User: Which sequence fits this backbone?
């Protein structure tokens, strides 16, 4: 796998590891979606952001129930990213 993955940027090898590339692309899109939904609207208050964070936690729990570990990891990674992790008032408003 390592030797094949290392060749993915060479001309004519766009077909190399397509499922791995698709998994990475999905992970990145989902992470960006979570981050944007939490931070994209500057008019949101801490309580509003807390509701959005709670929604994503519920989605992650459902993904875990469905054994969709890649999506769980993407959601948790987004919620633990620095821009979202630093929202102290938002996390204080998130229910336990």
Assistant:
């Amino acid at each position: 796998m390592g030797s094949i993955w290392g060749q993915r940027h060479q001309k004519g090898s766009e077909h190399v590891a397509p499922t791995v590339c698709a998994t990475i692309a999905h992970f990145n899109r989902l992470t960006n979606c979570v981050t944007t939904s939490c931070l994209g609207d500057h008019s949101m208050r801490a309580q509003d952001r807390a509701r959005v964070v709670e929604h994503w936690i519920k989605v992650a729990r459902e993904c875990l129930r469905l054994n969709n570990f890649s999506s769980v990891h993407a959601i948790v990674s987004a919620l633990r990213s620095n821009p979202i992790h630093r929202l102290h008032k938002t996390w204080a408003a998130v229910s336990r």
